[in-house]
Amino acid sequence: MAVDRPIADAEWQRLFEPSEVEPRQSRKYATLRRTAGPEVVFQYPGIGSLEIDQLDEALRARLGADCTPYPVEGLAIVSCPARG
C-alpha cells in the first residue's frame, strides 16, 4: 500500500471496505466498539509522537484488557482476539 494514494483511491477503499474507519483527526474513542471476531486497531499520531503509550492505553481501555499493544514507530496498534 502506498501512503501517497488519496483516500478516495479505489484500492485504498477496497483495503478498508470491511473496516470501520474513524475520522482522521478523531482521538475520541466513545464510538469505538469491539467486534466479535479478531481485530487490529491502529491510530497514527505521527512519527516521534510522545502520545503512543497514552493512545495504546486508551485503545485497550475501550476495547479490553485482553488486547495486546504492538510497538511500531509512529503508530499506536493493538490486536484483540476473537470473543466468544
How does this structure look, described?
Helices cover 23% and strands 19% of the residues. With 84 residues, the chain is an alpha+beta fold. The protein has a domain of 45 residues. The longest helix is centred in the C-terminal third of the chain and has 12 residues. The chain is globular, with a radius of gyration of 13 Å. The mean pLDDT is 76.
**How far apart are the first and last residues' alpha carbons, in Å?**
32 Å
Uncertain runs are none
Helix-residue proportion: 10-25%
Shape: globular
Report the structural category.
alpha+beta
**Rounded radius of gyration (Å):** 13 Å
Along the chain, the helix and strand elements come as: HEHEE
Trace the largest sheet across and list its strands.
1-3-2
DSSP strand (E) fraction?
A: 15-25%
Q: Let me know the average pLDDT.
A: 76
Mind summarizing the main beta sheet?
3 strands, antiparallel
